[in-house]
Amino acid sequence: MITQNHMGATKKIPTKMLQQMLAMPYYRQCCFHTRFAGKCGVGRLQYHHHLRYGGRRINEIFAILPLCPTIHEAEGNVKIREHLDYIMVTRMTEEDFAKYPNVDWQQKKEYLTEKFNKSPF
Question: I want to staple 105 with a disulfide (CB 3.0 to 4.6 A). Which of 13, 39, 42, 97 is the partner?
Answer without folding.
Answer: 97
